[in-house]
Amino acid sequence: MEVLLGLIFAAFYAAAVLIPVARILDRTGYNRWADFIAICPVVNIFGLWAFAFGEWPSEIANPRELDKWSAEDNEAFKKAMANKKWS
Fold first, then answer.
1. Looking at residue 12, what is its pLDDT?
2. pTM of this prediction?
């Protein structure tokens, strides 16, 4: 019974850590699979330092500079935003 409770706790802990870490890594441009470093003892400390002070892939190329809008797209966006009902 204690083994089952331990496995259930480990699964909840892993989900509680891996889901937000995967989301953070995805938003910063890193591969989501790197989140498994977060559950490895001692390795997670080195991963955290590398993450904090390393070069972020999302900072290398600005997506706004890579995807320029045409004048038509810009006008369509302005119209869509003007028609948006903000609550």
1. 92
2. 0.55
